[in-house]
Specification:
Blueprint lengths: L2 H15 L3 H22 L3 H10 L3 H14 L9 H9 L5 H11 L4 E9 L3 E6 L7 E4 L12 E9 L2 E11 L1 H22 L5 H4 L3 H30 L5 E2 L8 E7 L5 H10 L3 E3 L6 E4 L14 E2 L3 E2 L3 E2 L2 E6 L2 E6 L2 H14 L8 E5 L1 H13 L12 H19 L12 H4 L3 H25 L7 H6 L9
Parallel strand pairs: 6-10
Antiparallel strand pairs: 1-2, 1-4, 2-3, 4-5, 7-14, 7-15, 8-9, 9-13, 11-12, 13-14
Helix pairs in contact: 1-6, 2-4, 2-9, 4-9, 7-9
Length: 473
């Protein structure tokens, strides 16, 4: 039997040991500590909360965190611990790796880490955001498969067979939520140290009083991790997605419109497109045209939601593209309204040369879902009614490039409504801009991993703001 099988068996046996009446009561009390504040705040029962999390796929995460917090605790009056109790009474039947794992778990503490480097399926490098110190390499197969750089995770690290590994419980934290957690922990830690630094016998237990207080604090702080994580998860489950619009404040929808034509009309279609001022060949030798910006496209507007736009080659603003293929002329735009305007333009320009238009459209959410389903299927062919994922990725990268170039000179709420170029001039502002860049890069790596696309390369932003020395490659 392998070491991991021995460890899994030991954890399962410990869970069964928890079902004894004495320990079951203590376990229920610990779940109350973690869940009651959130339930009271939202006026829901623990059963309703757990059911909602399970339906959304988060139930296992919550149980893992509370379970590990419980088995690490020492309870009055004699610092009794369930792992000690289990090993004393049933430890003889566990393997050596199983016993050592439980002992490491018993002595572990929960902390918040930042992923600075990851090799999926092999290992990751972590920086402890609460206690500081050197970067830690964690050797893990399963736990690193879905990680990306700059992830923030709450986890316990166990030193097993000469390497650090993750315990079973782990919570992912979005960047801004992680900052909220760090602020809460910083304030709580100050109060904790004021109350406990006088404890008698402390110096005898460790030569480093500060380090010991940090560990004692983190042993007590686990409910803060779960409460803040829970509030964020529930807010995201109940809240709407941010609205995405183009420069004309039209809801972002990827549209593809096909105009059928007969082969005899091909030369005349090309001639008319070449003669039209609003259409320009993408390549002199190709059969694709770009729709130049509409007359009011250059005006500054106050845009609601997240404004993104289509650029040619990442630089040149366009309103859409038009491509010739055997038997069909295909128009691509990023809104239904823009498609309707282009249809009117083309109807007048190509009157009598093309047939009725056939339109298909996808929201960004639908496109992501379809691409995910396609990647998980056994069918290697592209679904007949999907928009080309490579084209969609290029469009997204172009829009992100334009959006981020604007962002460098625009107020950002995360930066106190100052632009990145303004905030980077002070030391505190520079730290905020670094966190902002990490957040952008992390979100993009996560999006690209989810959709199976090459991620947008944001290194130019670090260089532009003279922060490249703070970016870990």
């Amino acid at each position: 039997m392998g070491k991991q099988s021995n460890i899994d068996k030991a954890v399962q046996n410990l869970m069964k040991w928890m079902e004894q009446p004495g320990w079951l009561k203590e376990q229920t009390a610990r779940f109350d500590v973690h869940l009651a504040p959130v339930c009271d705040h939202l006026n829901i029962s623990q059963e309703e909360l757990i059911q909602e999390l399970e339906e959304a796929g988060f139930g296992g995460m919550l149980f893992g965190m509370v379970f590990e917090d419980f088995v690490c605790r020492r309870l009055p009056p004699n610092d009794k611990n369930i792992i000690d109790d289990y090993l004393k009474r049933r430890g003889w039947r566990e393997s050596v790796p199983g016993r050592r794992y439980l002992q490491e778990l018993r002595d572990s503490v929960l902390s918040l880490y930042e992923v600075t480097k990851v090799s999926p399926g092999r290992h990751c490098d972590l920086r402890d955001l609460v206690r500081g110190g050197e970067t830690i390499r964690v050797h893990e197969h399963k736990g690193t498969r879905n990680m990306v750089k700059w992830d923030r995770i709450a986890a316990r690290l166990l030193h097993v067979n000469g390497n650090y590994v993750f315990s079973g419980g782990m919570l992912p934290f979005p960047q801004e939520v992680a900052q909220d957690l760090l602020r809460v922990l910083a304030e709580s830690r100050k109060e904790f140290k004021r109350e406990h630094s006088w404890a008698t016998g402390m110096e005898a237990r460790t030569e480093n009083l500060e380090e010991n207080l940090d560990e004692l604090f983190l042993q007590e702080a686990a409910p803060a991790f779960t409460s803040i994580w829970l509030m964020d998860i529930l807010e995201r489950l109940h809240g709407p997605m941010p609205e995405m619009v183009n420069r004309d404040e039209e809801t972002l929808v990827f549209t593809e419109t096909r105009f059928p034509f007969v082969a005899e009309q091909l030369d005349e279609i090309m001639r008319r497109l070449d003669a039209a001022s609003e259409w320009e060949r993408d390549n002199p030798d190709g059969t694709a045209w770009v729709w130049l910006p509409e007359p009011d496209a250059s005006g500054k507007k106050s845009i609601r939601g997240l404004s993104i736009e289509t650029y040619q080659g990442g630089q040149r603003l366009i309103s859409g593209t038009l491509a010739l293929a055997p038997g069909a002329l295909t128009l691509t735009t990023n809104s239904v309204e823009r498609t309707n305007r282009a249809k009117e333009v083309l109807a007048a320009l190509l009157d009598g040369l093309v047939g009725p238009a056939l339109i298909k459209l996808q929201t960004p959410e639908q496109l992501m879902t379809e691409n995910q389903i396609h990647r998980n299927s056994d069918n290697d062919g592209e679904p007949a009614d999907s928009i080309d994922p490579e084209l969609a990725a290029e469009v997204i990268h172009n829009m992100l490039d334009q959006h981020y170039r604007q962002c460098l000179d625009e107020p950002i709420p995360m930066l106190g409504d100052k632009s990145p170029r303004q905030r980077v001039k002070s030391r505190k502002g520079k730290e905020q801009v670094i966190e902002w860049l990490k957040s952008l890069e992390n979100n993009e790596l996560r999006r690209a991993a989810t959709q199976g696309h090459k991620p947008y390369d944001s290194r130019w932003m670090w260089d532009e703001l003279k922060l490249d020395a703070h970016r870990v490659d």
